[in-house]
Write a structure and sequence with these properties.
heterodimer, A: mainly alpha, two-stranded antiparallel sheet, 15 helices, disordered N terminus, B: 293 residues, mainly alpha, transmembrane helix (chain B), amino-acid transport (chain B), ABC_transp_permease (chain B), membrane (chain B), Branched-chain amino acid ABC transporter permease (chain B)
């Protein structure tokens, strides 16, 4: 028991063995982020459109995983139904663009608000439940979603879905369509990361960590459990909804079968493998969710599932901080070896 | 009225299948406090094993017995290899591990047997007989008989054997059980083995109705969850009662509530789960757990 409690509480904390002054570490984080961002801006001019599309999808997944990370990694609550919020955002955007012909940028705040409210409404009953019951309810929501979308055919287009025109790049930019979509996704992803980082560093983030690490202690210190859990659920749903909205822009098509239960489960797998409770976890998880299936599909149709399943279990045993934690550990041991040599 | 009763019979017959999977969930929950999200997939995998045996030319009932033996061994093996290292871990870890198992077993079945639909032999004759204007299929009777036999055997095991007494002791208080000399580790593995066996029965029963494919149990699982929640996760009898109630509720809602209809029936377990958890979280037959902060 004690070992595993430690594991969860360590998930969000900075890796041990980093003795530098906090100021220097923060500065280094900014430098790394800057270099990555520069590479991300440079990349679409060097890659073929298909690869640009793949990277765009990585950004979409990263935003969704960022949301799931707030809930699972930072608040310690589980969701097997985040695909439902992703779908809610995607459909909110698609319906506005298809039926009301709104400009696509206007759909983003609305999709975010819809998913946030949905998360709030579902979060109120769900957060009275603990652990596995929450997993049950969210799973049931994800399963219920597909027939529900098929049912309201006039609005959602039924099983046929809705086809939309993809956002066209403005003339001044001189970009191709895939590049423009990539930069839209990149802008949204960067904004989402800054928002999440700010959120988690604030009072809310500290309250969530307290709830995750010890509910009773948190309550004694005056953290209202149900309030913060519901809030985490709603925030996390909002990020998933934003990701869904960008998904609609990028794919230009939504149908109930784009959001099966497996999407929710894949998202959970992605964040667990990427690294619960770390800021780089969502990006690593998104790379994983995007590229493992496309690379391993050649071996066998079922290979991605086998790899995902085994990795999730393995990660829970040996590396509860996921790929992000492993990378941190590797960097630390490398540093030690260099210092010695 | 006849039509209504006919629907009830139909509901009870699907409910019996939910009940057997719910029973498997409850067995594992009692012993290890884990809700096994992979239970349905394990049942599906067992069904494939049964299919493999019959495809090799074995008579159905022999294939079933062999499958149950293999499932029992498989369940024990999974407990030993996969669950043991995370025993006593927080719920989040346990849920994630069983979800991982879910993904793995599902994909492994697809890898071995492909995702194409397979015809599963129906062990029961296709006919039906009539009682007072009601048609009762032999299929329905067969399902009832099999689930009834399984429950009877479990009852005998738990109430009238030494192993069963030991298992009940472990479920009630593992520490005390260990102190009086019961081998808790072995008992937990037995619990997983039993659950896998009971789950295999539900898979074999449902396969002729749904066709055999790797995602076959995904839909059944959520009904079994609803059944176990309704009956109470710590009550095997409750799981059976819950399964029957969920089966009837689902069928009636699909048949008589226009807004729900056959396509939104899957909302019924969601409503049941939410309703039970908000109004009576321990379920109809479960014990409310008093926790000391």
């Amino acid at each position: 028991m004690s070992e595993s409690t430690q594991v969860t509480s360590r998930a969000g904390a900075p890796p041990r063995g980093q003795a530098q002054a906090p100021g220097r570490r923060v500065r280094r984080q900014w430098i790394v982020a800057g270099v990555l961002l520069a590479a991300a801006i440079y990349a679409p001019f060097q890659l073929v459109p298909f690869h640009v599309f793949q990277l765009t999808m990585v950004l979409v997944y990263a935003v969704a995983l960022l949301g799931l990370n707030v809930l699972v990694g930072h608040a310690g609550q589980i969701s097997l139904g985040h695909g439902a919020f992703f779908a809610a955002g995607a459909y909110a955007a698609a319906i506005m663009m298809f039926h009301w012909e709104l400009p696509y940028l206007a759909t983003l705040p609305v999709a975010a608000a819809v998913a946030f409210l949905l998360g709030l409404v579902l979060g109120v009953p769900a957060m009275r439940l603990r652990g596995l019951y929450l997993a049950l309810v969210t799973l049931a929501i994800a399963i219920f979603l597909v027939p529900l979308l098929k049912r309201f055919e006039e609005v959602t287009g039924g099983s046929m879905g809705l086809s939309l025109a993809k956002p066209a790049p403005p003339a001044w930019s001189g970009l191709a369509e895939d590049q423009w979509l990539y930069f839209l996704a990149l802008a949204v992803a960067v904004a989402a990361f800054l928002l999440a980082a700010g959120l988690l560093r604030s009072r809310v983030g500290r309250a969530l960590h307290a709830v995750r690490d010890n509910e009773i202690a948190a309550e004694v210190m005056g953290v209202r459990l149900s309030y913060y859990k519901t809030l985490a659920f709603a925030w996390s749903a909002m990020f998933a909804g934003v990701a869904g909205c960008v998904y609609t822009w990028v794919i230009g098509f939504v149908s109930p079968d784009s959001f099966p239960v497996t999407l929710s489960i894949t998202l959970l797998a992605g964040i667990v493998v990427g690294g619960l409770g770390s800021l780089s976890g969502p990006v690593l998880g998104a790379l994983f969710v995007m590229f493992v299936p496309s690379l391993s599909q050649d071996i066998n149709e079922a290979a991605p599932g086998v790899i995902f399943g085994l990795l999730i279990i393995a990660v829970m045993y040996v590396a509860p901080t996921g790929l992000a934690g492993l990378a941190g550990r590797a960097a630390n041991s490398l540093k030690k070896t260099l210092r010695k040599g | 009225m006849t039509g209504f009763l006919q629907q009830v019979i139909q509901g009870l017959s699907t409910g019996a299948i939910y009940a057997s999977l719910a029973l498997a969930l409850v067995l594992i929950y009692q012993f290890t406090g884990i809700v096994n999200f992979a239970q349905g997939e394990l049942a599906m995998f067992s069904t494939y094993i049964a299919w493999q045996f019959t495809a090799a030319g074995m008579p159905f009932w022999l294939a079933l017995v062999l499958t149950l033996v293999v499932s029992f061994a498989g369940g024990m093996l999974i407990e030993r290899v996969i669950i043991r290292p995370v025993e006593g871990a927080p719920e989040l870890t346990l849920v994630i591990v069983t979800v991982g198992l879910f993904i793995f077993v599902n994909a492994a079945a697809g890898w071995i047997w492909s995702f194409l639909i397979k015809d599963f032999p129906n062990p029961f004759p296709g006919g039906a007989f009539e009682v007072g204007g009601l048609t009762v299929g032999f299929q329905t009777l067969g399902v009832f008989a099999v689930v009834g036999i399984v429950m009877g055997l479990l009852y005998l095991l738990f109430q009238h054997t030494k192993i069963g007494l030991g298992m009940r002791a472990v479920a009630t208080n593992p520490v005390s059980a260990r102190l009086v000399g019961i081998r808790v580790g072995v008992t937990l593995a037995l619990g997983w083995g039993l659950a896998a066996t009971v789950g295999a029965v539900s898979g074999v029963l449902v396969a002729p109705l749904l066709f055999l494919e790797p995602n076959m149990m995904g839909g059944v699982l959520i009904y079994a969850f609803a059944a176990a929640t309704l009956g109470g996760f710590d009550s095997p009898a409750g799981a059976v009662a819950g399964g029957l109630i969920v089966g009837v509720a689902e069928t009636l809602a699909g048949a008589y509530v226009g807004a729900i209809g056959p396509d939104l029936k899957v909302g019924v377990p969601l409503v049941i789960i939410l309703g039970v958890l908000l109004l009576r979280p321990q379920g109809l037959f479960g014990r409310a757990v008093v926790e000391r902060a």
